[in-house]
Amino acid sequence: MAHNPITVELIRTLDAIDRHGSFAAAAEHLHKVPSALTYTLQKCERDLEIKLFDRSGHRAEWTEAARHILSEGRRILVAMENLGHSAQRLAQGWTTQYVVALDHLLDFEQIVPLLTRAHEDIPWVPVHVRQGTLSGTWELLLEHEADLVVAPLHSKPDAGNIETRPIGTIRMVLAVARDHPLAAVDRPLTEDDLLPYPVVTNQDTARQITPLTAGLRQRRQQLLVPDMSTKILAQKRGLGIGFLPMHRIQQEVLGGDLILKSLASNDQEREMTLVAGWRQGDSDKTHHWMLEHLELLSIN
Amino acid sequence: MAHNPITVELIRTLDAIDRHGSFAAAAEHLHKVPSALTYTLQKCERDLEIKLFDRSGHRAEWTEAARHILSEGRRILVAMENLGHSAQRLAQGWTTQYVVALDHLLDFEQIVPLLTRAHEDIPWVPVHVRQGTLSGTWELLLEHEADLVVAPLHSKPDAGNIETRPIGTIRMVLAVARDHPLAAVDRPLTEDDLLPYPVVTNQDTARQITPLTAGLRQRRQQLLVPDMSTKILAQKRGLGIGFLPMHRIQQEVLGGDLILKSLASNDQEREMTLVAGWRQGDSDKTHHWMLEHLELLSIN
DNA sequence: AGATGATTTCAAAAAGACTGAATAAACGGA
DNA sequence: TCCGTTTATTCAGTCTTTTTGAAATCATCT
Question: Which nucleotide is nearest, taking the CA of residue B30 and each C1'?
Answer without folding.
Answer: D19
